[in-house]
Amino acid sequence: MxxxxxxxxxxxMSLLIGCDDNNDNKNDGQSSNNITITSDQSxxxxxxxxxxxxxxxxxxxxxxxxxAETANTSFPLVQIAEVKPPVDANGRTLQASHxxxxxxxxxxxxxxxGDAYSGAIDVIDVSDPYKPKLVTSALIPNTDxxxxxxxxxxxxxxxxxxxxxxxxxTTNPAIVLNMELSSGLLTDKFKTNYLENRVTTDVAANxxxxxxxxxxxxxLFKLSSSTKEITGKATVADLRSIALTSDKVxxxxxxxxxxxxxxSTLALQKSFTTSTDVSGAKRTMDIDGxxxxxxEGPNGLGVYDINSGSKLQSIAIATAGEDNVTxxxxxxxxxxxxxxxxxxxxxxxxxxxxxLLGSVGIAGSSNYVKSSGNYIxxxxxxxxxxxxxxxxxxxxxxxxxxxxVYNQGKDLxxxxxxxxxxxxxxAINSAxxxxxxxxxxxxxxxxxxxxxxxxxxxxxxxxxxSQGKYQQSNPTELVINSNALLQVEGSxxxxxxLRLNSGAKINFIGSNSSITIYGKVxxxxxxxxxxxxxxxxxxxx
Length: 541
Fold this sequence. Notes:
With 541 residues, this protein is mainly beta. Helices cover 3% and strands 50% of the residues. The strands form nine sheets. Strands 35, 37, 39, 41, 43, 45, 46, 48 and 49 form a nine-stranded parallel sheet that branches. The chain has a six-stranded antiparallel sheet with strand order 2-3-11-10-9-8. A hairpin with a 5-residue loop joins strand 26 (301-305) and strand 27. The relative contact order is 0.11. Residues 5-19 and 23-32 have low confidence and may be disordered.
């Protein structure tokens, strides 16, 4: 069956009429209940790509002149990997559509662009901060997987299925699946609820219930986590997104705006208008306290008071264009991450108003964003999923409390015999520490390009250092020259090359320090490496 125009636009969204239980459990490349689950690590590793990995910057185009030259940020970022999208059994490349996070696992859903239905779900383990691992992947034929969330230990899956492939569907492709997990990993044990409409656009859950919204002639559905049956319904056209507070259900319609319901009864408590959106396009919301963040497509981002419905702030699209639209927003720990299609990903710091830090320097479009913990997950269509780590200081260092926050601009140069000490989170473009100079940094620091310690220079690093870019045609380098000293108490990740010229010194402090080097290591004579450390790639031998 050809997809309804609503779902086709959703890819670029009532009444229970049936249910189905699937209880056989097979895995590791086996097809069961039409789901093929792969957990073979060598196969899955082929989809992890480090090509664009390394330190990335935030650029703020609103700064000009001297301000632009000296700009720096206290928001260091590292792209740690990209996950290539899966290819289905018919050789078709799928497209990332949604991300949810539970503990150290990120779950990614996929859809098929065009007329056909085909989907997948990936599970990515991010317990190792710089080495994400794709641990399992499930191909789900004839079904687009549009959205994911958790209800207890089960994965709730919003989807649309080809009605010609399932006799229980009749004319409505929208479904929601409740899948049992095994230690966080995918199984083929799930229950299907068949919903009235063309596609389930979004799902959400609390401890006792889960909710689904459908588009076109849409509805909000409430389902019991224990019985997995529909217990309530409210009809609203063109629903795109759903979000929960402790006692409210918030829905976003492309034509009707925001509705707020009582979570227990689904009684409508409040409604207010937002910008009218183009038909069927994917949009999301997020909540911070009483602030509701709404992606409004070509109209940018709207921030609303969830109690009064008043609009607190509008953030317009910087440059008009067909693909320049605010698709999604995610709020995490004082920052709003906004996916603006072809314009990429913007980061805002939250105060009374959202204040732009800048645009993240990543390749490709940004169709969906989810931030959780120290990570940002960005879906980029058939470009797959980008995983970005926010380099946050992991503690307060007692001997560093008197140090100031870095304030010397994006290119750090310490002249001979300079002594500088900083703390906190620091992101810079390059660093040169000249003869006799001493740089001390406590916290997290990223250096996007070269870091050079000239003869007799010292860099005392406590916390984390991430430097360079992965396998560039003109490789980035960390260079330590004669009698220069890098002292490490924590973790160092060098995405490019390490050059240890004659007489260079590295000293690791404590028993828990580590170094990861992705490029090549060049050693001169009389290089000294002392202390206890973990060499994750075995490059310092």
